[in-house]
Design brief:
alpha+beta; two-stranded antiparallel sheet; two-stranded antiparallel ribbon; 4 strands; 35% helix; 16% strand
């Protein structure tokens, strides 16, 4: 089986430790392509592509983007259309467009 990783290769990528509750991953020395279905104690030292469900340092995670990204997100999620249909006033809509125009992004 040439496509099978060896134990030595796996241990170069992932470090484990034995805790009172059993074995757990201590460090990942590479990229994770997939999901982390548990908790992360420590640092994420690069980018996260995908979704974060839960908290970061006990704070609820939230996406914060540039004004252009935020407006694009609203349009993609049809929330801007809903705001218009629900009667958002002119000033609210103009403020969103002004933020887009003022953005360098």
């Amino acid at each position: 089986m040439a496509d099978q990783i060896t134990l030595e290769e796996a241990l170069e990528l992932v470090e484990f430790e034995l805790c009172p509750e059993g074995w757990r991953v201590k460090n990942v020395n590479g990229s994770v392509y997939g999901d982390v279905l548990g908790k992360v104690w420590g640092d994420v030292c690069c980018n996260v592509y995908g979704n974060v469900y839960g908290t970061i340092n006990s704070r609820q995670w939230m996406f914060i983007g540039t004004p252009k990204e935020e407006l694009k997100y609203l349009i993609e999620k049809e929330e801007l259309r809903c705001l218009i249909e629900e009667g958002a006033d002119k000033d609210q809509l103009l403020a969103a467009l002004d933020r887009l125009e003022d953005s360098d992004d």
